Recover the amino acids of this structure.
């Protein structure tokens, strides 16, 4: 298997936000198409000079060393029992103290991956950061990560931050794949983008977003419908050219993972894709393969975003498929909460940490590492969140807290000086 564009260069792709960080080095994505679908990539030009067998070699996941139990938080916030644990499908929520920020999380996950894989620091040719969080409006997270490469003398590392809510991580992955080989575009990606104010961060003086929850869910489902329709049409066109004229359905996929704002959204999303298949099927197929959905065959997708009767029927009809093809991917999200742009890759790491596959040891120990976190009370959690607000955009301070509470080998914010310059230190391994 060919290395990269030069023998000594490797590639790293980094995606993270405040609750979790994950790293994906090369080789990248066309192999993933072969893994999760029945269709091989069809290159658009000659392939004799392209790297072979491009795919993911390793994943590294980091999450904070503390969490708040969602049952405790329900009681503390004086909400009905089950609002978080049942309504959101979440048992624990990991969170960062004032000692950690986007830079420290990225420092930790890059160093862990390099050490675990025993990669030479001078062998990296690209480092791509995907995020939706910024500390500085000019200085990239990637420039902070270059400190890790200083002793090796390797300053010839391409790549920069890709900043965008939720999509930043995936965009950086595509950028890294394109850097490796020009056949990364195989004509099978389905994309949807529109200008909607459902989730945005206009106030740079605040850590918190402006959110229209109902609209955000509607946007998610609309994007899901249109991306699936685009992907299905492209793949069916390729099949037809190869002499295989049949519809593409979810049965053609081995596994399905999703961007995960909360776990129940994922189950509804898979059910939603089944509804797409149902509406596209013939009447006979609808009756034979999609029991319990016959009453909904006359509906249009755009009229069903808030149809609770349909949601209930779809979840029931797709339960077996969800258990077989998606549920295992929600392990990390269930125990750590929303990870924003990196949540898709947390799902990938969760899927690979199950008995389905052993990609690298860094994913197989996820349950053990999650279990080693410290449980804190809802009161302590609230105090830490208030502390983060207190120190947001402050200068000339060292964050309070006991660094011994961090996982061994974790990078943390040591000081912010009067010129907003940040220095970081690492807890001994």
């Amino acid at each position: 298997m060919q290395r990269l564009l030069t023998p000594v260069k490797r590639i790293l792709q980094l995606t993270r936000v405040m609750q979790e960080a994950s790293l994906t080095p090369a080789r990248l994505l066309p192999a993933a198409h072969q893994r999760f679908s029945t269709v091989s990539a069809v290159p658009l030009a000659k392939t004799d000079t392209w790297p072979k067998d491009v795919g993911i070699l390793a994943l590294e996941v980091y999450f904070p060393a503390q969490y708040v139990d969602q049952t405790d938080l329900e009681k503390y916030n004086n909400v009905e029992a089950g609002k978080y644990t049942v309504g959101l499908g979440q048992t624990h929520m990991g969170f960062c103290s004032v000692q950690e920020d986007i830079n420290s999380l990225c420092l930790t996950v890059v160093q862990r991956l390099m050490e675990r894989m025993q990669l030479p620091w001078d062998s990296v040719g690209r480092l791509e950061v995907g995020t939706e969080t910024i500390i500085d409006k000019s200085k990239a997270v990637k420039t902070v990560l270059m400190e890790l490469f200083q002793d090796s003398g390797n300053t010839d590392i391409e790549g920069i931050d890709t900043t965008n809510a939720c999509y930043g991580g995936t965009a950086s992955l595509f950028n890294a794949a394109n850097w490796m080989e020009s056949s990364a575009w195989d004509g099978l990606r389905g994309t949807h983008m529109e200008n909607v104010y459902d989730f945005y961060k206009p106030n740079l003086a605040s850590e918190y977003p402006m959110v229209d929850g109902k609209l955000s869910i509607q946007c998610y489902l609309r994007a899901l419908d249109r991306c699936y329709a685009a992907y299905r049409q492209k793949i069916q066109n390729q099949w037809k050219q190869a002499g295989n004229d049949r519809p593409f359905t979810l049965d053609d996929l081995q596994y399905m993972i999703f961007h995960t704002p909360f776990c129940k959204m994922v189950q509804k999303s898979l059910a939603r894709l089944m509804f797409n298949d149902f509406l596209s099927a013939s009447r006979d197929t609808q009756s034979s393969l999609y029991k319990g959905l016959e009453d909904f065959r006359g509906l249009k997708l755009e009229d069903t975003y808030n149809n609770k009767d349909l949601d209930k029927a779809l979840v029931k009809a797709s339960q077996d498929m969800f258990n077989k093809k998606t549920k295992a991917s929600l392990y990390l999200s269930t125990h750590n909460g929303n990870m924003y742009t990196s949540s898709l890759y947390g799902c990938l790491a969760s899927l690979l940490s199950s008995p389905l596959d052993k990609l690298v040891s860094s994913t197989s120990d996820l349950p053990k590492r999650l279990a080693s976190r410290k449980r804190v009370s809802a009161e302590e959690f609230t105090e830490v969140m208030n502390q983060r607000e207190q120190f947001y955009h402050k200068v000339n301070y060292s964050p309070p807290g006991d660094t011994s509470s961090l996982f061994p080998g974790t990078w943390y914010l040591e000081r912010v000086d009067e010129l907003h310059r940040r220095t970081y230190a690492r807890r001994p391994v």
